[in-house]
Fold this protein.
Amino acid sequence: MSTVVAGASSRDAGAVRPEWDRDAALVGGQWVRPGGRTVTEVENPATETVIGHAADCGVAEADAAIHAAGAAFPGWSALAPTARVAILEGLASALESRYDLLVQTTIAEVGAPLSVAREAHVDTGLAVLRGYLDAARELAWEEHVGNSLVVREGIGVAACITPWNYPFYQVLAKVGGALVAGATVVLKPAELTPLSAYLLADAVVEAGLPPGVFNLVPGRGRVVGEALAAHPLVDMVSFTGSTRVGSRVSAVASETVKRVGLELGGKSASVVLEGADLDSAVRATVDACMLNSGQTCTAWSRLLVHRSDLDRAVAIARERAQGLALGDPTRPETEIGPVASAAQRHTVIGFIERALAAGATLVTGGADRPAGLPVGHYVRPTVLAGAAPDAEIVREEVFGPVLVLEAYDTDDEALAMANGTHYGLAGAVWGPDRAGAVAFARRMRTGQVDVNGGAFNPVAPFGGYRRSGNGRELGRWGIEEFLETKAIQL
Ligand code: NAD
């Protein structure tokens, strides 16, 4: 990412679409240019060209947005939940009318292949928002307990800080829940992927949300992110990103005792129990690990198989990974695009090189640039085996298309291995009978487990155990994140 003064952009400015050429923050319903009119360039990771710009805001814009959100809060939170839902139905419709642009934006700023941009990014984001609107109708907003009326109301000003891997979905997972709850929002999207957040802001304006209910302040994490986390008028920070930065956000926010919701990294295990359909389990694990070029917090980046199945599992994983179509994300047949930035490619390549140097075996892929793709931040879908149980590649999140196979001898050992990292975000169990697989899933210390290929549910609670975070998003749980509870004694 680089910063330039608006109007003085550099590389390949001819490719910039008007919807992606932005230089302002949305504050209190007005588009406000930051002082100095600086913007950041947005790069397409497949072409390495500049395809857009975003405002590079500072502390002043963050402060103004927080005040605007604070001013809008009493009115927004006083609306009946049904009235908020009616307004937010308009937001959902305004987003749905931008469907093709959202898909094109996701391809361009993330590098996600067309089908992944459609299904995993945009469809899922829209389903999450619709899920919140449905959940709001079911939620117990008030109840009587003895002589008390217990009411649930929006927490106040919610600062939402989001990463770049599923930018549209991650923003809606926070903003949708917060707005339904009656909180008002200041959003700081990731530096690499601010463009879908601008499209959300456009939809907010079109849908006629009251000014200040939603504010957008693109900028750097250490500047705008920290200003939001530290600000005394922010009641809650909802953060999705790395464990390292989440820990920093918590520390900064603790000074003012605000609520902090964290959705952090993972190193999730897909466990194939003896007697499971090995072929389906291994193929599905490779696909899930490589989805979005492995830049998925819930990626099953570890595949645990019984030692007697290891050789067959290695062969199936090699064949499946080699069969994945890597390349231009705009082509319908592409299954894996580039990773999101040169820095991310460098990080992923480093993990592969260190794993091999530490004794892991390369099953397929590797650190070298894929043939025929001289431009773009491409990484070959990589499968490793034979790593030591305490190796970095087994314990740390790579956030790239890298799967590591491990062998176990007993179910208890498989469980200890699956639970043996600091993370606890997701996982999978494959077994010959559902009851046995569910029993194993219950023993996993992780926020969600898919049994025999159970599908992602956009209204089920989503969040981590341990260093994968403490929040729960989606469905009614994602609304409750942003609620305060008050007891009125009668
Ligand atoms: P990151 O932690 O570097 O950045 C996330 C956000 O925090 C960005 O908007 C960034 O600008 C901001 N930020 C950076 N420094 C900050 C600071 N000091 N104070 C406040 N904000 C700051 O993460 P990333 O590289 O954008 O995303 C990848 C990480 O996110 C991975 O670890 C991944 O597992 C995790 N993730 C988790 C989930 C989940 O739901 N659990 C979902 C997606 C991604």
In short: The radius of gyration is 23 Å. Confidence is low (pLDDT under 50) at residues 7-14. The chain has 15 helices and 20 strands.
